[in-house]
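ugh ok fine here u go
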Amino acid sequence: KNTFQLSANDVLQGAALARFTHIDLKRTRVLVLINTRSIYSEGLAEGYQNALKGVQGVSIEKHLSSGHELHLENLKTKIAKMQPDLIFISDDILNSAILAKYIHTLDPLIPFLSGSQFGNDKAMKILLKEVPKMRVYYATSWSERENNIENDKFKLSYREKYGRSLPTPEAALSFDSLQVLAQALLRADTNSNLDRVRYFLEHLIFGTTQGKISFVSGPTHSPIKDVHIQVSNISSFKFLKTLRTTWKAKP
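structure:
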């Protein structure tokens, strides 16, 4: 009863990547790979598939796996039969890179879509250095490549607490979640119970890793969060676009 989710990052990323698939990439045959041992992977896939439900002309097939036990022969058969024009590896970017490297040998023309950049550009380059023509799109909760006043403020605030190193997307997301929780606790009076804190958390609007938090009244509001889309063709990594998407808070 008194539990709450600070961030719907997986659902948000999935929805943003689905929108990116349909509107920007204009892909119609998508194969979704889901790691059943990962809550993040399943949540990402859920957000992705829900956002594409009912979209005319888009067909989705799923391939379930458990970590590295992918049943590669079955996957190979499915790819040959479906001939997807996009493979969405619903997992973090490093796990995705390992799978993409193998799948790329089956069909070098298929582009890949992935989840968060768990790790860094250097790690991706090491994993994928032998396949320079591979194109991988991925989502992240924060992009250091987007230069603006809010990002600069956040970097300064982060450095004050954690030293000179730039935050990773995951560290930035954790920082953001802590700010949300701190603000919720401040807004709740000392006599209130956890249900009231939970209400605040579920009905606030917040920016991404910038501490822009405002509390709103009424049950119809949902958190709003930016999701950044990055693109990598291995030789270069660049910020591609920012998508703003919403997630309906669970009752």
